[in-house]
């Protein structure tokens, strides 16, 4: 599985949260990388098939959630020493000038995961660009993917429904992402971590009780109690949703980049910049749900002026967000001791 997802010599960023999934992923990738690099010495004829030769990094995002992420990042730092991999940590506060604690104070505990998910996705891409990696691997397991399929069905989000079961996503504008644990049950990962005595952080996010995903998880567990194959069945159902762009006009997106930060976007403003715009202007609902009317109402005027400052590194609307084109290897990369 790992061999099919990577090319020999790839630079790979492992998205590390300190949780069980990313800890097991980092452990296995490090193990296989070293094991099959050594095989090269003894079995030259196997080189094509078995050599990994990967350049591995840990990439962590600090969302700024007191009592949760600060503790889990300590686990990541311990694992960095244990696995001897370079670590880069990017924080929402540094990138966006808003931590999740600040955002929850502003918007309350509804929709906070929308902000967190959009910002994390972009933060990971920013970190990957800084590290100059070829690919990001994440620890999403089969349970996570089945939950996402359910959520996309419940929201009627056909475009995401098609994409969410891809084991590797790739577009010209973003760094490829892969989910090597797509078919691995959460319980298998927990058992592996337990028997290997891995150091991982197991506390739930303090803002998760209100997350929509939680309802999908409970529903999935109920289904699994009746039919044990439910999780893989749902993933296979998701894979079978092959809807063409012609039959789904909502699925037609024109690739492009955000005028403000240079991130991949089919609109003038990417979702992260739109959410930031709302936060900075005291209109946090600006980027939530069906944004078309609000976008039009509040951004028409602003978008006229975007062209004037889109070439600058730091934009007036979002003074902390740096253009993607200006990112480079950060000097704060923690090297293994
Ligand atoms: Fe972020 Fe929500 Fe996950 Fe907490 S539960 S880390 S707020 S996405």
Description:
With 337 residues, this protein is of the alpha/beta class. It folds into three domains: 1-139 and 179-203, 3-Layer(aba) Sandwich (Rossmann fold); 141-173 and 211-253, no CATH class; 273-327, no CATH class. Helices cover 48% and strands 7% of the residues. It is built from 14 helices and six strands. The protein has helices at residues 2-5, 20-42, 47-50, 69-83, 92-96, 100-107, 112-131, 142-155, 158-163, 186-195, 212-226, 230-240, 271-280, 292-309, and strands at 11-15, 55-62, 87-91, 135-137, 168-169, 177-178. Strands 3-2-1-4-6-5 form a six-stranded mixed beta sheet, sandwiched between helices. Helix 4 links the parallel strand 2 (55-62) and strand 3 (87-91). Helix 8 (142-155) packs across helix 11 and helix 8 (142-155) crosses helix 12. The longest helix has 23 residues, at 20-42. Bound molecules: iron/sulfur cluster.
Structure summary:
This protein is α/β, with parallel strands linked by helices and 337 residues long. Helix content is 48%, strand content 7%.
Tell me the distance between the termini.
31 Å
Low-confidence stretches: 305-317
| Residues in β-strands, percent | 5-15%
**Which ligands are bound?**
iron/sulfur cluster
Helix content: 40-55%
- Described by the principal axes of the CA atoms, the overall outline is globular
- Estimated structural class: alpha/beta
| Major beta-sheet overview | 6 strands, mixed
Mean pLDDT: 82
Name given to the CATH homologous superfamily of the largest domain: HUPs
Whole-number total of structural domains: 3
Specify Rg, calculated over alpha carbons. Answer: 21 Å
Region (Disordered): 299-337
Organism: Clydaea vesicula
Keywords: ATP-binding, Cytoplasm, Nucleotide-binding, RNA-binding, Transferase, tRNA processing, tRNA-binding
InterPro entries: CTU1-like_ATP-bd (IPR056369), CTU1_C (IPR032442), Ncs6/Tuc1/Ctu1 (IPR000541), Rossmann-like_a/b/a_fold (IPR014729), TilS/TtcA_N (IPR011063), tRNA_thiolation_TtcA_Ctu1 (IPR035107)
């Amino acid at each position: 599985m790992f061999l099919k997802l990577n090319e020999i010599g790839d630079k790979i960023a492992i998205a590390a949260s300190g949780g069980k999934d990313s800890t097991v992923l980092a452990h296995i990738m490090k193990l296989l990388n070293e094991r099959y690099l050594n095989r090269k010495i003894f079995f030259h004829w196997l080189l094509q098939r078995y050599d990994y030769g990967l350049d591995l990094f840990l990439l962590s995002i600090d969302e700024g959630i007191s009592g949760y992420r600060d503790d889990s990042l300590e686990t990541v730092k311990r694992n960095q020493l244990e696995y001897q991999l370079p670590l880069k940590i990017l924080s929402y506060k540094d990138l966006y000038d808003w931590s999740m604690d600040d955002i929850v104070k502003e918007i309350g505990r509804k929709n906070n995961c929308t902000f967190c998910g959009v910002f994390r996705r972009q933060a990971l891409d920013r970190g990957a660009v800084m590290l100059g990696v070829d690919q990001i691997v994440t620890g999403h397991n089969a349970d996570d993917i089945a939950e996402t399929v359910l959520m996309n069905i419940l929201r009627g989000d056909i475009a995401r429904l098609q994409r969410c079961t891809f084991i590797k996503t790739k577009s010209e504008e973003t760094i490829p992402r892969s989910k090597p644990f797509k078919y691995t049950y959460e319980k298998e990962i927990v058992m592996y971590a337990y028997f290997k005595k891995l150091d991982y952080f197991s506390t739930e996010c303090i803002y998760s009780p209100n997350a929509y995903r939680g309802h999908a998880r409970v529903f999935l567990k109920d289904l699994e109690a009746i039919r044990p194959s439910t999780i893989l069945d749902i993933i296979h159902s998701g894979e079978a949703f092959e809807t063409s762009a012609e039959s789904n006009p909502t699925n037609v997106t024109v690739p492009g980049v955000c005028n403000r930060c240079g991130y991949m976007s089919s609109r003038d403003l990417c979702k992260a910049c739109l959410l930031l715009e709302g936060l900075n202007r005291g209109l946090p609902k600006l980027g939530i749900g069906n944004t078309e009317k609000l976008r039009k109402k509040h951004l028409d005027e602003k978008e006229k002026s975007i062209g004037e400052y889109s070439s600058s590194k730091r934009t007036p609307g979002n003074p902390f967000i740096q253009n993607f084109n200006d990112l480079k290897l950060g000097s704060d990369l923690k090297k293994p001791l």
